[in-house]
Prior knowledge:
By secondary structure, the chain is mostly helical. The chain folds into two domains: 21-80, Helix Hairpins (Orthogonal Bundle), CATH 1.10.287.990; 92-198, 3-Layer(bab) Sandwich (minor pseudopilin epsh fold). It contains seven helices and three strands; from the N terminus they run H-H-H-H-E-E-E-H-H-H. The chain has helices at 21-52, 58-80, 92-102, 105-118, 164-167, 171-178, 184-198; strands at 121-128, 133-140, 151-157. It has a three-stranded antiparallel β-sheet. Helix 1 packs antiparallel against helix 2. The longest helix has 32 residues, at 21-52. It starts with 20 loop residues before the first helix and ends with a helix. 30% of the residues are buried.
Amino acid sequence: xxxxxxxxxxxxxxxxxxxxxxxxxxxxxTHHQGYVNGLNSAxxxxxxxxxxxxxxxxxxxMRSVTHNGCGHYLHTMFWENMHPDGGRTPDGDLADRIExxxxxxxxxxxxxxxxxxxxxxxxxxVYDPVDKRLRNLVVDKHDQGALWGAHPVLALDVWEHSYYxxxxxxxxxxxxxxxxxxxxxxxxxxxxxxxxxxx
Length: 199
């Protein structure tokens, strides 16, 4: 079954002035589509190699599945993690868990911003089912620095294509803007889903 680019859950200009229509169009229609295409191509190569019993090139295709699959999955979450009526702070069980695991929302946010400032790809808030806690991760590209078994619940893309047109080299301004559109309902839904499987 081939993968498809999901539609945005809002209009291209819905996140303005924080993220421009132009960036959303480029980012969704070109960059995200590229990961979908790459994932489909790699999976086709693997299937063809299995059918032929010839595994030359399979290792490269498997690496492509990892790279493009992570790119596709994280971008899908990224779009859902934003909303034109977003912002504010989390509440309910998610807020309680953030306070329990990080000490306070402010402490979590400071650490997450540090991850976003340092990452060469993504800052992620993940649920770690081994330690049964939330963690922030610095992820380079789409998969380097990931934690085995952990489930992302909030994804912030800090590749340059996500902000350079709007903010130039001022990544910190883009990170601030992201917090103006965070869809905490989406993050809470992700959190509830993974916790229900592991606790």
